[in-house]
Amino acid sequence: MATRRLPATLRFLSAARRSELQGLEDLVRTCELVTDISRLVHALQKERGYSNIYLSGTAPQHRQQLDQLSHEVGGLERRVREGFERIEPDNLGAAEKTRLFTRIAYALHGLDELPALRRRIRDHRIDMQDAIAVFIRLIGSLLAVVFEAADTAGEPDITRSLVALFNFMQGKELAGQERALGVAGFASGYFEPALLERLERLLEGQERCFDIFSRFCGPDALGRWQAFCISDANVQACRLREVARRTSAGAAVDPHLCELWFDLHTARIDLMQQVEQQLEQDLLDRCRESSERIRTELHNHRLLLDRLADMHAAAEQAKLFDVHVSDLDATPQDGMTARVARSTLELLQSQSQRVQGLSEELREARQALNERKRVEQAKQQLMKQQGLSESEAYAWLRQSAMNQGLSLAAVAERLLAITGEVERSSKPRPPRPRSKH
Amino acid sequence: MATRRLPATLRFLSAARRSELQGLEDLVRTCELVTDISRLVHALQKERGYSNIYLSGTAPQHRQQLDQLSHEVGGLERRVREGFERIEPDNLGAAEKTRLFTRIAYALHGLDELPALRRRIRDHRIDMQDAIAVFIRLIGSLLAVVFEAADTAGEPDITRSLVALFNFMQGKELAGQERALGVAGFASGYFEPALLERLERLLEGQERCFDIFSRFCGPDALGRWQAFCISDANVQACRLREVARRTSAGAAVDPHLCELWFDLHTARIDLMQQVEQQLEQDLLDRCRESSERIRTELHNHRLLLDRLADMHAAAEQAKLFDVHVSDLDATPQDGMTARVARSTLELLQSQSQRVQGLSEELREARQALNERKRVEQAKQQLMKQQGLSESEAYAWLRQSAMNQGLSLAAVAERLLAITGEVERSSKPRPPRPRSKH
Fold this sequence. Notes:
By secondary structure, chain A is an all-alpha fold. Chain A has helices at residues 8-55, 63-86, 94-112, 114-122, 128-152, 156-187, 193-216, 219-229, 232-246, 257-320, 335-386, 390-404, 408-426.
């Protein structure tokens, strides 16, 4: 079949299938990179936590541990850097490739800045909040690479796995930020109202991320998550939150509570990592399954094409014995040609339906990926237009969702649709064409 | 710069820009193919129209004209087939490539069937409705290729041009179907209620397509469209519609009116083609402008990168004179390194913002592309769930849009969001994780 020239229809059908397989092979490499990023992020979160407690000044004994953590990050960082070099995203479109490369450049820039940051932390030449901010930016830039991977994957099962993993990573990162914020709060003896407000936002964020994660993860990860939710590590960390909420300038607590907070939240986050590892495993399993399935399908598809090509060749052979001036003078299609046409059409229809189904499934999963972003946008919109605070805006969205029995995302989507309409209609529009019918 | 090894951050930044340019070059080829498809579709619509009037039996004199039209289609078909062969959609992701190739295979299959169809038409061995159906399928498959091109283009200006052109082509195709339907109606002396209902749907469809077109086209095309709307060709064709609406089994008209209908609607569609030609021109202009702009940007970007690379090299050179066991022992960043880092960050930020802006613009244009599909889906939903007829469902959507001061698409989007919510919540869902905070 390789040497025989197929009719154009069959060649394109076959090219369609081949590009599917090739895209999947690139995607598998990207998913391996994603799991490496997930490990690096976990190590960075740990380094951020210990840098934080070290900078709080209450625990100088953490210096050695900090060096050890920096060393661990170094090893994982090398893997990720190698992964970036190896990536050949032929499965991506130009716009997606541009986005991915820009995100990678951003992440690399953050990694390049790590050595200088570490020196400043060791020498106490940086404020705790500033150090946290640098780590948050760096981790955010790595998460953005994972987001792009999820947003551009062309296989629904893998996309769902990536959506679950990305949201879990994002939720865990907010948990890490909560840990850092709590250390800062307890280290100063109490939580300022602004700090408490930020704490609440981090909790809302975690809730939304874990909600999306739980809609897209597999049963094993969900089981681990449920076990996490009722675990001592989680329950105790939550309890200390209540203590934090009750502090104020007039009701300060022992600054050394920051170490207990740190330990409890570290245990919480470490337990989260077990869910994350399950998600990484699920992702790689989905990759393997999809590769195998598509390989089998491709093989069957080739057999089908081969048979059709034989039929085409026979039909062409039969035509050779007729000589006509033009197509219009030719004899009507004989049974053979008609049969070939029908078989080709069936193959086309089944492929079209499959492709359409894939597109719909992808759309759904990608929509979920953007849910958080849309809720964020809706909140900004409300703050800007109604003059609400961030908490009020969120409360409003939440209440509307409950009243209407909809998800937060659906309410956000509607709000943005209305605002979009209003903005669109207030722009000077070209005059509407008249009398079309 | 080509031989010098750039730091990884800059290499990825530069790769991001290069992929943008390369994607655009592929896109330009795709747009040329789109304009060829648009011409082929126009010729096929004409051939359909004349086949139709020929099959109506009222005008056997059209046989020669029909042969001439088939010949014209043949020339344009060859160009499109060559375009399909030349297309190398490296600018597309795997899923998009799979979709595009499948659509092309479908279109090719339709083109392969043309000779047999033509013989059956000449010999009156096919029913008028069946012949129309085959042409509609073929033209639909060609439009689907244009849809994919619009849905996957990575440049907002070009995407907007493609969205305008696709919607115009789709509207004109519905105008062509209206012409065919009218010929069938008048040839039998009157319009059955079912036929009139289909006529109304074709009008609604045209209105929606031309509405989206007019939101995305340039001023020249809009000017031509406005001239079209008030042209005699359009106004007279619209008037004959009123006659069609007043016919019934008890109030039949002269079947020869079908020729007047055919001529008026042919004049209407031919005039539409002038708008279409303007859109094709606009599309090619946008391609040329974008190529030039990106080339200039790429050149400036290279100069910037070059300067940064020099700075990096100088900073590295300075470091060579320091010998340290590890990064942590190294001297703090000197002013040079810090300056390089800052400049790199600025470049990264501007590129990130640009890429983000591009993604948003693309999202908007692609959303409009799918508007009609969403309205269609919402209509189906209403018919299924509320037991409405197609017209009632459309009327309901339209009324809701007017009541709420929203577009049809926004109302459809909301309706689908609610239904999606309901469906999602009625599925057996995994138990919600407890006690997250």
